[in-house]
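Q: How would the structure tokens look for this protein?
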Amino acid sequence: MLSTTYITSAFIIFIMMSIIFLIAIVKKDNSIVDVFWGLGFTINAWIIFILYKFPFGITSTIFVTIWGLRLAIYLFLRNNNKGEDWRYAQWRKDWGKYFYIRSYLQVFMLQGFMMWIISFPLLQIDNTFIPIQLWQYGGALLWLIGFLWESIADFQLYQFKQKSKNKGKIMQTGLWAYSRHPNYFGEILVWWGIFIFCLPYGKWYITILSPIVITWLLNNVSGVPMLEEKYKQNKNYQKYIQKTNALIPKFW
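A: Here is the predicted structure in token form.
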């Protein structure tokens, strides 16, 4: 049963990411993959839940759905009618004639592979009846804190950027006063919470790859490093770095 869910999930994600790649070609905008990130998790989770009817899967599926839909809607509103994100636009120039094949493999398939690994806690739940454990409430609470932290941080940044007087300025108020990337910090908590909640239903040494991978990605690859590189010449941002942690909030 467990191996079947992994294979099914991998197939679902492969099909979804291939379709989104074709849409990106038509739109000439690879950044739509960011909008689909949260939605992809949601679709994958529900198909797995419907196919295998895990009795406890509904809770974790709802967790992922709330997180994924919120993120997808936010990114759509933020990016709508603004053209291709600067990262993907730069790769479009750098990759030249190999743009399409590299986009398919290094953007869409790579993100799909990461989506699959991060979804591991959802794939481990089986049909064995296990009473709810007290510490699972801790996982649910951690998910809630992470979800609220990420949502509030995104909302504050969106409001900040909507004001013309803030153009070119660095957001340093609200949750952004405590860490430079509070939205990423919240997302990390979300997946550690889901991992903890799903622990009784699978093999922890497999499901733990989920929060480890998302933590590594946001801290070392696609999250913090890319944005820090963008602002490396910004003197105000460099001052911001000196007094504010990258991810873990600093309240003193």
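The chain has a mean pLDDT of 90.

The radius of gyration is 19 Å.

Upvote if useful.
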